Amino acid sequence: MTLRSVALGSGSYLPGKVVTNDDLTKLVDTSDEWIVERTGIRTRHIADEGVLTSDLAMEAGKRALANAGITASDVDMVIVATTTPDETFPSVATKVQAGLGMTRGAAFDIQAVCSGFVYGVSVADSLIRCGQANTVLLIGAETMSRVLDWKDRTTCVLFGDGAGAIVLRGETGKGDNSDRGVLDVKLYSDGRLHDLLYTDGGVSSTRTAGLLHMEGREVFKHAIVKISSAMEASMSSAGISPGDVDWFVPHQANQRILDGTAKKLGIDPAKVISTIARHGNTSAASVPLALDAAVSDGRINKGDLLLLEAMGGGFTWGAALLRW
Ligand code: UT7
Fold it and tell me: Using CB atoms within 10 A as the burial measure, which of 11, 137, 253, 304 is most buried?
């Protein structure tokens, strides 16, 4: 008998304002054609002034709880993966905890930039398996629009705002790959690659959040190699081959990265969940947003084997195998 962290449900939330590529041509020297051809992005959602990461996280969290068929009082732990918190402290997660009316349990944030949700799966799974929590609300939420330089065409066209969430609960499994729940997670980082993707500010350095800078071409070169090797490592640990996976739920940074990774691993492109055209890159929110989109439209069903992956600033990257 093995304790597994089983997904009870998912939810997501996107702010109402949709910004098209044509809208961005009014801000920077770009074109719909360039953005679509180089990234696959057509639109992204941007939070209105005054709408905070915690607001997006709360809505996604509420929807995940409703879809899981539980209430906030059933939750032992709230974890929010975000790189764009409302405040330096306290965490977004404690704001969500209060907003949900929770009066017990614990809440904290995880900072692993675009890989935050995959890191969160590992942390939540570990806390469940060691008995610290039984029911965890894991949220990825971002207002990336607040750290963008809207004069920099090389970055401002790529990102969007949003939130996605899942509920994980400890349940007994048989201990083999047929179990529902988290089957394996692999996490990595390499701090030497800081300068390829970072913000030029922070509490301890500039006392500001700073703005995002990225050497896009260099990041791209690392992405397919690192993502593929994380996915391969996770499948190898769990004794699973790409053909066994029902759905690949990747971080949504660039359609060309999704296509390149699928090609490298021999994955059927029809099994790759892509929301990049509508959402852009929502950092830690992108994997749960894609996951919830495919659960909501009926593609992902109970018992399906999912392979999640992400890579982002740090660099951080990782992959997770989850039987839904
Ligand atoms: O989530 C974290 C992980 N992030 C990623 O994985 C992102 C990885 N990188 C990428 O997705 C791609 O590198 C980008 C989409 C960022 C850029 O695509 P690219 O094909 O690598 O373009 P590039 O940076 O090599 O730029 C090609 C040209 C340049 O002009 P020159 O130097 O060839 O004259 C850029 O100045 O495209 C130009 N350019 C643009 N043109 C129109 C860059 N941004 C734009 C733009 N509109 N928005």
Answer: 137
- Tell whether the model's pLDDT for residue 185 goes beyond 90: yes
Q: What is the number of the ligand 1 atom nearest to the C-alpha of 286? A: 1
Given a cut of 90, whether residue 11 has pLDDT beyond it is yes
Q: Based on the residue annotation, tell me whether 251 is a catalytic residue of this protein.
A: yes
Please state the rounded mean pLDDT for residues 1-27. Answer: 97
Does any ligand 1 atom lie closer than 6 A to the CB of residue 39? Answer: yes
Distance CA 219, CA 311 (A): 9
Q: What is the pTM of this model?
A: 0.98
C-alpha 151 to ligand 1 mean position (Å) = 15
Amino acid letter for position 128: I
Parallel/antiparallel/unpaired status of strands 106-110 and 161-173: unpaired
CATH annotation of 2-173: 3.40.47.10
Catalytic residue check, 114: yes
Going from N- to C-terminal start, the domains of the chain cover 2-173, 181-323
Domain spanning 181-323, CATH class? alpha beta
Distance (Å) from CA 216 to ligand 1 centroid: 6
* One fold for 2-173 and 181-323: yes
Return the pLDDT at 1.
85
Do residues 198 and 313 lie in contact, with contact meaning Cβ atoms separated by under 8 Å?
yes
Encode pLDDT of 33-61 as tens digits.
Answer: 999 999 999 999 999 999 999 999 999 99
- Pocket-testing residue among 24, 154, 158, 311, ligand 1, by greatest number of atoms within 8 A of Cβ: 154
Pocket of ligand 1 contains residue 222 by CB under 6 Å: no
Residue with tokens 């969500």: 96
Mean pLDDT (the chain, rounded): 98
Q: State the Cα–Cα distance between residues 59 and 95, nearest whole angstrom.
A: 12
